[in-house]
């Protein structure tokens, strides 16, 4: 379900690509839980394999057609009219709008709030105090755009130290797990989850089977893309 209304050209409010749910959180430690999603528009990375290019790729999408601007009060009202207790703020990169995101999270203090981020923007103390968890997904070299600053040491260090972050890496093949291990060691990352790359159930299942044994050997966690297993690449699920 989409949130209607708003003005992408206005100067106030949050830029939103879509709101949908109830559905299930598809990834990481909260996978399978009923949830609502608020997807912010705009991103500071340009990953060729991104599954939400409508949040940033203006060579393919018109930003006025794929994003709208909404007040935190309107977004909070949309959430509060629905029953799931888990609310996932995703993107794009939500922390590009974190000053207003803090206000939204504080308005929804009765819900469990998870923020999904690429880990390149240092979180504000007020946001750390207000969310239940950060789902941090640093991008590996083969996934990110060639000129992207995909690893920002001060940001990853802040997330690792905040006590509310879980780290999820999208992996295409087992050989990339050495790169993950290097980042885990360099930044002392806790609670590591590995997720196969793929936008079809066949690709996700095949990726999990190819990664499972080595992920176990390294002592990490393996997550599916549950929404992909259930609904393939359908938007808003």
UniProtKB/TrEMBL annotation:
Mg(2+) binds at residue 52. The keyword rRNA processing does not apply. It catalyses: 6-carboxy-5,6,7,8-tetrahydropterin + H(+) = 7-carboxy-7-carbaguanine + NH4(+). Its cofactor is [4Fe-4S] cluster; S-adenosyl-L-methionine; Mg(2+). S-adenosyl-L-methionine binds at residues 92, 137-139. PROSITE patterns: RADICAL_SAM. SUPFAM superfamilies: Radical SAM enzymes. Pathway: Purine metabolism; 7-cyano-7-deazaguanine biosynthesis. Keywords: 4Fe-4S, Iron, Iron-sulfur, Lyase, Magnesium, Metal-binding, Queuosine biosynthesis, S-adenosyl-L-methionine. Its EC number is 4.3.99.3. It comes from the Bacteria. Pfam families: Radical_SAM. [4Fe-4S] cluster binds at residues 43, 47, 50. Binds 1 [4Fe-4S] cluster. The cluster is coordinated with 3 cysteines and an exchangeable S-adenosyl-L-methionine. Signal peptide: none annotated. Residues 30-233 form the Radical SAM core domain. InterPro entries: 7-CO-7-deazaguanine_synth-like, Aldolase_TIM, rSAM, rSAM_sf. Substrate binds at residues 24-26, 39, 90. Homodimer. Belongs to the radical SAM superfamily. 7-carboxy-7-deazaguanine synthase family. Catalyzes the complex heterocyclic radical-mediated conversion of 6-carboxy-5,6,7,8-tetrahydropterin (CPH4) to 7-carboxy-7-deazaguanine (CDG), a step common to the biosynthetic pathways of all 7-deazapurine-containing compounds. This is 7-carboxy-7-deazaguanine synthase. It comes from Kitasatospora purpeofusca. The lineage of its organism: Bacteria, Bacillati, Actinomycetota, Actinomycetes, Kitasatosporales.
């Amino acid at each position: 379900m989409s949130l209607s209304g708003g003005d992408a050209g206005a100067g106030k409010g949050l830029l939103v690509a879509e709101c949908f749910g109830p559905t299930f959180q598809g990834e990481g430690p909260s996978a399978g839980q009923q949830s609502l999603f608020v997807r912010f528009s705009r991103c500071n990375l340009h990953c060729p394999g991104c599954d939400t290019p409508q949040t940033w790729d203006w060579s393919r999408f018109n930003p006025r057609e794929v994003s709208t601007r909404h007040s935190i009060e309107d977004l909070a009202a949309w959430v509060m009219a629905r029953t799931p207790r888990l609310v996932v703020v995703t993107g794009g990169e939500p922390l590009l709008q974190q000053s207003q995101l803090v206000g939204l999270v504080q308005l929804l203090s009765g819900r469990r709030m998870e923020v999904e981020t690429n880990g390149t923007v240092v979180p504000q103390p007020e946001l750390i105090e207000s969310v239940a968890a950060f789902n941090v997904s640093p991008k590996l070299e083969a996934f990110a755009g060639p000129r992207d600053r995909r690893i920002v040491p001060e940001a990853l260090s802040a997330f690792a130290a905040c006590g509310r972050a879980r780290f999820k890496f999208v992996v295409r093949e087992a050989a990339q797990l050495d790169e993950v291990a290097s980042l885990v060691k360099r930044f002392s990352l806790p609670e590591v989850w590995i997720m196969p790359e793929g936008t079809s159930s066949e690709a996700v299942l095949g990726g999990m089977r190819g990664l499972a044994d080595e992920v176990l050997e390294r002592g990490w966690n393996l997550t599916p893309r549950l929404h992909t297993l259930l609904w393939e690449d359908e938007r808003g699920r």
